[in-house]
């Protein structure tokens, strides 16, 4: 597996409970929680669309999404450990809190929402108990001034 240089992490090899970031393009990444190995194969728990029909998001939403356990290599060959909130929020214990939460969520219907519940929100919710998406916050910084201006002019 191709590890990328880490930001917000002091170790290269993931430990169960670490957030893994899989870069998709220049702007967005997919996120999951490193679950550990099964028969020597590393696995990641991640929020994903359930079937091909829901990959076309309607206004950034997909109704048929779920937390799924997949081999890391299936999700992406390049990734980095990205425990970006560790400095301000203590991570929850993997074996007593995170793993049972992942196991409980698997197979349940979840609405994916690019702005309010994406794979990064789900990963931070598992690890820290709070939903946060730094990539969406960066987008907000860019679009919020435009939205404010349109709102003032009553065009939004």
From TrEMBL:
GO biological-process terms attached to the record: N-acylphosphatidylethanolamine metabolic process
Domain LRAT: residue ranges: 20-135
Highest taxon of the lineage: Eukaryota
This protein's UniProt keywords: Hydrolase, Lipid metabolism, Transferase
GO molecular function: N-acyltransferase activity; phospholipase A1 activity; phospholipase A2 activity
Any single GO CC term annotated in Swiss-Prot or TrEMBL for this entry: cytoplasm
One Pfam family, short name: LRAT
Residue ranges the record marks as coiled coil: none
Similarity remark: Belongs to the H-rev107 family.
Protein name per Swiss-Prot or TrEMBL: Phospholipase A and acyltransferase 1-like
